[in-house]
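Hi there, hope your week has been kind to you so far. It would help a lot if you went through both lines with me. No rush at all, and the record is pasted right below:

***
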Amino acid sequence: SKFTISNSKFLNSKADALDSDFCEGNIINTIFKNSGNDAIDVSGTNLAISNITIIDTKDKAISAGENSTINGNNININNASLALTSKDLSKLILNFFQIDNCDVVFTVFQKKSEYGPAFLNCKNVNYTNFKIDHMVQFNNSLIINSDSIAPTFLDVASKLYGNEYGKSSK
């Protein structure tokens, strides 16, 4: 489906606040607060986001998976286990944003063998108060403020999903 969400609030979601599978959409001037799992979770989706605030997310603030593309700007994330995740042939391209108080800021990896490596590019980003700044699996790409970050993990997924970081969906 195609959708536009604007001037909205997603509050106290028990699971994912927004889960978009095989869609095309826009999210503008929207707040996600107290998400039980992910705030924005997309698979096979093309999404544009702007002027987004995400607060108190138990798992991923923004997650792009299964050949998704997310383009965004003016984003604030505060208090999430995982701030930004790009996996399984997805592209997450963001500009002008602030991240504070997250366990892991950037995760980039391939979880499913039928997909390829993922890509995450962030410009004009400021992040503070984190445990780990990035987890990048080999053959995947992370660029932060024009600096390419070297991959250092063989298996990022084994550290996530409630194993060390994030939340189990079970």
Q: What stands out?
A: Residues 79 and 149 are 23 Å apart (CA to CA). The radius of gyration is 14 Å. DSSP finds no helices and ten strands in the chain.
